[in-house]
Design brief:
With 477 residues, the chain is an alpha/beta fold. The protein is 41% helix and 21% strand. It has 16 helices and 20 strands. The strands form five sheets. Strands 12-13-14-11-10-16-17 form a seven-stranded mixed β-sheet, sandwiched between helices. Strands 7-6-5-8-9-19 form a six-stranded mixed β-sheet, with helices on both faces. Strand 13, helix 13 and strand 14 form a beta-alpha-beta unit. It is globular and about 70 Å long. The N and C termini lie far apart (66 Å). It binds nicotinamide-adenine-dinucleotide. This is Aldehyde dehydrogenase domain-containing protein. One of its GO terms (molecular function) is aldehyde dehydrogenase (NAD+) activity. Keywords: NAD, Oxidoreductase. InterPro entries: Ald_DH/histidinol_DH, Ald_DH_C, Ald_DH_CS_CYS, Ald_DH_CS_GLU, Ald_DH_N, Aldehyde_DH_dom. One of its GO terms (cellular component) is mitochondrion.
């Protein structure tokens, strides 16, 4: 299948011919052997990106030309939608319909959005206190190092490359070791789109080797990372100990989903279910603490349990499947450990809690009630299909409890009273608040975290700032 086609081409970048397997989460079987980049390959890729930045046409061509190339890349990805979605499902276990109808189209939309920005990035003139003409120039930073996770491989790829390319930077991007396929497929489309040589260099390999080398590299001018909070700390350290390159971090979360007493309960149940179980629960912003007002708690719980029991788990390539397998045995074991900890700490297991089927890494949709804030399942990011339902009495209390997390990525607020919803939205210390909806994403909407959920914002106009230097130019009048 497609995997064989591009592997031979991706290997040419890498020096030693070493490979690692990428696995099918439905069975644990090997899909393909992938070239394993190491420190030497990172050096070669950074040298290529540096040359393309210092000498190549990319930062020097008109912004309109860059925009047209980004649009061509978006068109090509759209044309290859089904092949890319197939690889994404094969590598991650996510439902094919989700990959084909939501994620690849979002990648296309994001590239078109940033293509639109390329020729609208400009500085300003500033009225200084003195006889000077002062202007600011917005310039690309240089060589950007980018590291992405396995839960939304091509979507995260696009969040990283879109703004960086629009601003005229060159890139070395490392894919997650679990999910290299879709980005490698897109690598084969870059030349056809007209991207000059050396502008976007994609390396498959492991975090501790290729990833760490990229972060420590003295010739990388900026880092952008999406992944776990623990790895985020390591990356900051590596950047600080090398050349103090600026770092953008999109990290983990433990997002509250607050259901007020006046919420439309059926909508809240459905959205809370979606907020947690979407993508097998493997979302950084998953609504993983469902706070429900005591007056509607029993009704909500009964309906939430019924919805989880109805969830269609199975082969992600089969039409109608809502939930596929978890990404790998490591994540599977970690989630099962959290489920045991929930039971041991006294939460009530309403449904699920065990493997689905006998093969692969499927887990039954799991719902816990009677969850308390100090339980591990209410504090740690489980990154799996485990919904924790907690009871609250009043708004002040729920704000305090929702904000007591070390994370601050997102929140959901369900109320039919606009004042209540807005009060909560202002009080919550998170980067995104969805009111009466959840996981509503668009290329134009900034995304990022408060507290240990990250630094900086991606997407939207804010996303451009990560990839620009501001130069002040002062001339006497
Ligand atoms: P991870 O941190 O283990 O890995 C992410 C990436 O970092 C991978 O490419 C990995 O190879 C690389 N990496 C690992 N160690 C490294 C090191 N020492 N130096 C450099 N690179 C290294 O995370 P994961 O398990 O792949 O992804 C899941 C996590 O990502 C979750 O915590 C989730 O919340 C988070 N996430 C956040 C967002 C967001 O936008 N905030 C989006 C998706 C995922």
């Amino acid at each position: 299948m497609a995997a064989r086609v591009f592997l031979s081409r991706s290997v040419h970048l890498l020096s030693k011919g070493k490979t690692f397997p990428t696995l099918d989460p439905r069975t644990g079987e090997v899909i393909a052997h992938i070239a394993e980049g190491d420190a030497e390959d990172i050096n070669r890729a950074v040298a290529a990106a540096r040359k393309a930045f210092d000498e190549g046409p990319w930062p020097r061509m008109t912004a309109y030309e860059r925009s047209k190339i980004l649009l061509r890349l978006a068109d090509l990805i759209e044309k290859h939608n089904d092949q890319i979605a197939t690889l994404e499902t094969w590598d991650t276990g996510k439902p094919y319909a989700q990959a084909a109808k939501i994620e690849v189209p979002m990648v296309v939309r994001l590239l078109r959005y940033y293509a639109g920005w390329a020729d609208k990035i400009h500085g300003m003139t500033i009225p200084a206190d003195g006889p000077y003409h002062v202007q600011t120039l917005h310039e690309p930073i240089g060589v950007a190092g980018q590291i992405i996770p396995w839960n939304f491989p091509l979507l995260m790829f696009s969040w990283k490359i879109g703004p960086a390319l629009a601003c005229g930077n060159t890139i070395v991007l490392k894919t997650a070791e679990q999910t290299p396929l879709s980005a490698l497929y897109v690598a084969n489309l870059l030349q056809e789109a007209g991207l000059p040589e050396g502008v976007l260099n994609i390396i498959s390999g492991f975090g501790a080797t290729a990833g760490a080398s990229l972060c420590s590299h003295m010739d990388v001018d900026k880092l952008a990372f999406t992944g776990s909070t623990e790895t985020g700390k390591t990356i900051l350290e590596l950047a600080a100990k090398s050349n103090l390159k600026p770092v953008t971090l999109e990290l983990g979360g433990k997002s509250p989903f607050i259901v007020c007493e006046d919420a439309d309960i059926d909508t809240a149940v459905e959205q809370a279910h979606f907020a947690l179980f979407f993508n097998q629960g493997q979302c950084c912003c998953a609504g993983s603490r469902t706070y429900v007002h005591e007056k509607v708690y029993d009704e909500f719980l009964e309906k939430a349990k019924a919805r989880a029991l109805k969830r269609v788990v199975g082969d992600p390539f089969k039409s109608g499947t809502e939930q596929g397998p978890q990404i790998d045995s490591k994540q599977f074991d970690k989630i099962m450990k959290y489920i045991r900890s929930g039971v041991d700490s006294g939460a009530t297991l309403e449904t699920g809690g065990e493997q689905f089927g006998k093969k692969g890494y499927y887990i039954k949709p799991t719902v816990f009630s009677n969850v308390k804030d100090d339980m591990l399942i209410a504090q740690d990011e489980i990154f799996g299909p485990v919904q924790s339902i907690l009871k609250f009495k009043d708004l002040d209390e729920v704000v305090r409890r929702a904000n007591s997390s070390r994370y601050g990525l997102a929140a959901g607020v369900f109320s039919q009273n606009i004042d209540t919803a807005n009060t909560l939205a202002r009080a919550l210390r998170v980067g995104t608040v969805w009111i009466n909806c959840f996981d509503t994403f668009d290329a134009a909407i900034p995304f990022g975290g408060y507290k240990m959920s990250g630094q900086g914002r991606e997407k939207g106009e804010y996303g451009l700032r990560n990839y620009l230097q501001v130069k002040a130019v002062v001339t006497p009048l």
